[in-house]
Amino acid sequence: MNQQQGPQIRFINRPQAGLLERIVFFALGLVVLVAAFFFIGIALIAGAILAGIILIRWWWLQRKLRREAADTWVEGEYTVIETAITDERTEKKQ
Questions:
Q1: Would 93 be classed as within a structural domain?
Q2: Which of 62, 79, 91, 94 is deepest in the core (most CB within 10 A)?
Q3: Is residue 61 part of a domain?
Q4: Is residue 13 part of a domain?
Q5: Residue 71 gets which letter from DSSP?
């Protein structure tokens, strides 16, 4: 009998990696690991610098606002020209 079967998948065993191939892959992995370490280090340093700049700017604005709030007094001289009662209310009679 001729039976139809689906596609067959055959796995071909790859030969084991040689010593030179293992050394090359180890070296490439080490280079990638060192590059990732330096990239993360640089990113953390840049983030710390940016956070420091933002905190200094925020402190500077707060300092400026406090100084402006302290300088709200207006000084000057005045002279009373005339004394007058401006609030005259009539009493209600009951």
A1: no
A2: 62
A3: yes
A4: no
A5: T
**Residues counted in the chain:** 94
Q: How far apart are CA 28 and CA 26, in angstroms?
A: 5
Residue type, 22: R
Task: Tell me which residue range forms the domain holding 53.
Answer: 18-70
57 is a domain residue: yes
Give the whole-angstrom CA distance, residue 57 versus residue 51.
10
Total domains in the chain come to 1
- Cα–Cα distance between 29 and 22 in angstroms, integer? 10
pLDDT averaged per 10 residues, the chain (length 94): 69 80 94 96 98 97 88 78 72 64
Structure tokens at 58: 């925020």
Map residue 19 onto helix, strand or coil: helix
For the entire predicted model, the pTM comes to 0.49
